[in-house]
Design goal:
This protein has helices at 14-24, 33-46, 57-67, 85-92, 111-119, 141-151, 209-218, 234-238, 264-274, 277-295, 323-332, 348-351, 361-369, 381-396, and strands spanning 5-6, 50-54, 75-78, 96-99, 126-130, 154-158, 166-168, 174-176, 185-189, 202-206, 223-224, 252-253, 301-302, 316-320, 335-336, 370-373. By secondary structure, the chain is of the alpha/beta class.
Amino acid sequence: MMKPIPYGRQHISQEDIDAVVATLKSDYLTQGPKILEFENAFANYVGSKYAVAVANGTAALHLCALALEVQKGDKVITTPITFAASANCVRYCGGEVVFADIDPETYLLDINKVEELLLASPKGTYKGIIPVDFAGRSVDMEAFSLLAKEHGLWIIEDSCHAPGGFFKDSKGVQQKCGNGKFADLAIFSFHPVKHIAAGEGGMITTNDEELYKSLLMLRTHGITKDSETFKNSIDFAAGQSGFSEYPGWYMEMQTLGYNYRLTDFQSALGLSQLSRAEEGIERRRELAKVYQNAFRDKKYVKGQSGVIDGHAYHLYVIEVDDRTGLYNYLREHKIYAQIHYIPCHLMPYYRDQKWKEGDLPQAESYYKKCISLPMYPTLESKEQQYVISQVFEFYEKGV
């Protein structure tokens, strides 16, 4: 009998376990050397100058909004087809979220709709854009960067679905998600169903040194131990006069920050997982090719044709009629497909901000038909074939 098949799951190897155990036996469980090691390795992986490890992807988004000084009333554009945190980070800072519709073919934030919003208002109305590399497919960050520069906007690239993913720029060069060339900041998640699992955890990448320094302070209560930036005098710090340098214990809280740190044992797990990230992406692309070949001629399935170059395939999304019927049928057969996502603008919280049905027709149409099929590196071929056969069974036999 087929075991339950989730839409996504982590793969913890013996090497992962050994790495965590070794850290648990070390001198540091948190605020130790594994964190910087993970940060450096991750920055190298995506091609950015700096990386800051944090507690989770939501914390990463919040810190980005803080570092970019989002203020009450600031308007920021993002997509409705994303996890709510992509929008909520703006609200945490008192900003106003403005949703733009998606491209119905890619499911990504539609740059033409974003431009329409920008051109319809005086320059300066909007402060930033948060595009999302949805399902593992990279946004054309070069195009968004040009648009942002034209209108004086910052960009946070939400790459939670796409570590290792890339797009090709106007010169045909591969540009990895989160490499810092086109966005001010980018964020990643290490939730168990993501490519790199650390239990929880997140990462921020950037090429901007000032933003990097700000993030380091904001993730640790707004406290710094960098004597070059201290504001109080040496005499105050030492508790008496006559000293030429700050004492070793001294630190300053210079702004209101948060405890958004990642632990050393989570970093050890993340490092171990990172070592085989490319292997996992290749397996995901193999699975995507099997799905696409199976559904290619099926009129009841709308899917993205061909294995998309650079797609990291966090999710494999199809659109179907009677989506709810298929969802329930698959669950009856122990296939736990998922829906990604309920449009953010129609969540009750954002309805209270005056968003309503009909505002973003492409996103709303997508939601009525979307379903994410199982997609993870350890999905066995026989399990995938079982998933495919059950989709066929539902539509072709009218069960």
